[in-house]
Amino acid sequence: MKSLCLLWFMKTKATVRNLFKKPSSAIFTIFIVLLYGFVFYSFLFLPKDQSYMAVNFELHSSILLFVGFLALMLFSTMLSSRKALFSGEDAYFLFSGPFHKKQIMTFLTFQTFLQSILLSFFALIFFIGMNMGMSVDFGFIGLALLGSMLTIMIFLVFIDYSYILSIGDQKYKKINYIIAGIFGIVLVIILGLTYLETGRIQTIMIDFIESPLFYFVPVFGWLKLTLISYVTSQMGMVCLGLLLLVISLVIIYLLFITYKGDFYEQALQDSLELSKQLKEFKAGNQDALRNVKVKKTSVKRFYDGAYAVLSKNLLLMKKKGNIISWNDIISIGIYLVITIFSDLGFGFFIYMMIIWLFMMMQTSDLVGELKNYQIYLIPDKPYKKLIAVMIPTFMKVSIIGTLSFIVVGMYYHETFLTIFMYLINMFGYIFIFMSASVLTIRLLKSRTTQVFENMMRMLIMIVSALPSVILTVIFMMTNALTPTVLTMLSMASLAMNFILALIILWACQGMMNGRELKSE
Amino acid sequence: MIEIRHLTKKYGDFKAVDDVELIAESGKITILLGPNGAGKSTTIKSIANLLKFEGSIDICGYDNASIEAKRCFGYVPETPVLYDLLTVEEHIDFIGHAYQIENYKQKAEKYLELFQLTEKRKKMAKELSKGMTQKLSMLLAFMIEPKALLVDEPMVGLDPASIEETLKLLRNIADNGCAVLISTHIIDIVSDIFDEAYIMKEGHIIKRIKKDELQEESLKDYFFELTEGE
Predict the structure, then answer these.
(1) CB contact under 8 A, B99 and A379
(2) Other Cβ atoms closer than 10 A to B70
(3) Which residues form the ABC transporter domain (chain B) (predicted)?
């Protein structure tokens, strides 16, 4: 076991060492850690309007969003067709090395425990981000961490258990779908019962959010019960919620470690395969983790010079059918349903769409493109190449965003001018998000990750908002803040989005020459 | 012509390449030899403009970062980098338009024949064998009709018949005035076609030798003498 602990320690050390290998990467890592620290600090210690925690609709919906976020994360892992117990390297050394089953299982448990802690912190950041104005105490934060960690562990251990069961017997392959289906049915039943209780269909989502019936949903309901009961100071119910989570974890864990079947061979093969796919994904192949069906299609004509890259990328998007994919339509459909049922209006839909944009703009396509030496060798100007690479993503999000804004805006009887203003704002965000992706790759190169990229976007958004904030303060101090001035300031902030994005893209164009990006 | 002057590349304090001078002349096949860690890859990446370096590299008389240099430069990397979902034909269309080559389809046709890719033109890159992807990678570099060609380990993954064909083709391209620079470990394969060889060791060019200077000795024996069997 000592050697396995050493292995984990060395791997962690290597990851940290890699992050601090280059000054730019080190500075960025420290900045992010400080930023996370600041987010926690400001959430816990900065003065709030609300001086104490109260059980109201906001608290219910915030906790439900937190629980929903966890559920989304865990079910998407559970229903993924790609599974493995370890990384390829770990699996190779563990299964072929001098380790017995107990050691392997202990190492796996330790790994799952660490994963659960990290994921619960991640979920908590999401919760804090959504509720900066809420007043909470340390006890609540501690319970949220503990509860989410138990919830995540229950699912991760169950996913591992169902995986080794399916290796032994193919019929268990459907078990994850059955479990997800049961959760779905329970939710539908609770929605039905909520309707029967209130008799109101218009406010069914609001009633559902506040309904104690949700506590009957296994695992997630118990987590909500724990948190709400803490705020209402019902410590007995807090203990009940936690106890139910702990008992579930113990049962699943015992089932898992007492499994007698032989799963080594398939587990090793799957681990190696998944590691390979993850490496490809990290290297920029966005489809490495998907089952892509290739459509037979062609492009009418290729543009010349750098814009041949644009033609090529559009052709690839058409082949993969991801110009407007079902995933996008379903995501936006869900946002729309939530907006309509929760009666939060057009503004809320816009907010959800900005989050969608945030998630859509990943660097993978750009990183993938930069892996191919051909992009550097094409005899054309670097800024043209950069634009050619960015246009397909820009087109995709612009088309989907514009259509959604117009359709939903019309549903809410918004004026043409209002929809137009929101569209301009959306383009401002698209520019900022895209330039942030480019800047992250330029600074961090192969160490670019989604987390860094998202942090960079937030940083650039803050920087572009700074002039407006400073001017607002000045106008306030001189008592000259009128509605007209406020409108002008928000326009200035929007203009800054575009200006900053263009400056970044101009400054980063050299990376399309290869020398600047691939040098180290 | 590919002309390297005082090329130095440092990684921290370590000099991977130190003051390298190399000329691959037009109409000739120049080979770059060296044991592992000699600095060949660094030199090649520098020529392809993928690394920052000290010194200067000119391709066809232009700085290697310039558009003019790129226009006359072909590169065949050791591992082919292709787009999995694009067919052979679509790769040809892409490169043809990116380099704005006139009659590119006609030019590609002869290489399709030569590399026996004609039947595979509708196949996606991910459906090709390793050897076929190598052939497609070469085709894409050759169809731009480069004046300077850089080939990194060209024979990896090719069957014996294709190796023969490729060697003939490289000779033919050089005879038509192109400067061909080949980096390889497999000395036996290139020993018949080379005109000039540069031998690298520990970041330095330790010998520049023309074919006719070798007399009775084989290039392989000469290489081992210089590198002390590495």
Answers:
(1) yes
(2) 22
(3) 2-227
Per residue in A224-258, is it b (16+ CB within 10 Å) or e — as a string? bbbbbbbbeeeeebbebbbebbeebbeebbeebee
Q: CA B126 from chain center: how many Å?
A: 23
Taking residues B30-53, report their average pLDDT. 88
A110, amino acid identity: F
Residues of chain B in contact with residue A305, where contact means CB-CB under 8 angstroms, are 97-98, 100
Rounded mean pLDDT, A30-40: 83
Q: Distance (Å, rounded) from C-alpha B31 to C-alpha B151? A: 9
Using the structure block, give the residue that is written with the tokens 């290869």. A514
Radius of gyration of chain A, Cα coordinates, nearest whole angstrom: 25
Please report the beta strands in A421-503, taking only residues with DSSP state E, as ranges in sequence order. none
- Chain A residues whose CB is inside 8 A of the B100 CB are 304-305
A218: nearest Cα among A144, A273, A267, A154: A154
Helix (H, G, I), strand (E, B) or coil at B11: strand
Residue A164, C-beta contacts closer than 8 angstroms, at least 6 positions apart: A85, A256, A259, A261, A263, A267
State the Cα–Cα distance between residues B198 and B210, nearest whole angstrom: 9
The residue ranges of every structural domain in chain B are 1-72+147-230, 81-145
Is 90 exceeded by the pLDDT of residue A412? no
Taking CB atoms and an 8 Å cutoff, what residues of chain A touch B99?
Answer: 378-379
User: Percent of chain A beyond pLDDT 70?
Assistant: 90
Helix, strand, coil tally for chain A in percent (to 5): 80, 0, 20
The pLDDT score that the predictor gives to residue B175 is 92
B49 min Cα distance to partner chain A (Å): 5
Task: Give the one of B52, B85, B98 whose C-beta lies nearest to A378's C-beta.
Answer: B98
B98 reaches A (C-beta below 8 A): yes
Q: Does A378 touch chain B (CB under 8 A)?
A: yes
| The domain made up of B1-72+147-230 is a member of CATH 3.40.50.300 | yes
C-alpha B47, offset from chain centre = 10
B140, amino acid identity:
L
The verdict on a CB contact (< 8 Å) between A319 and B81 is no
Partner B contacted by A23 (CB < 8 A): no
Report phi then psi at A505, rounded to 5: -65, -40
pLDDT tens digits, residue range A150-176? 999 999 999 999 988 888 888 888 888
Chain A, 283 to 322: residues with Cβ < 8 Å from chain B are 285, 292, 294, 298-299, 302-306, 308-309, 311-312, 315-316, 319-320
- Closest to B76 in 3D by CA, of B17, B135, B1, B3: B135
How far does B97 lie from chain A, in Å, by closest CA?
A: 5
For the sheet containing B14-24, what is the strand order?
A: B14-24, B2-11, B54-59, B62-63
The answer to whether B96 faces chain A, any CB pair under 8 Å, is: yes
B85: chain A residues, CB-CB within 8 Å: 292, 294, 316, 319-320
User: Looking at residue A208, what is its pLDDT?
Assistant: 79
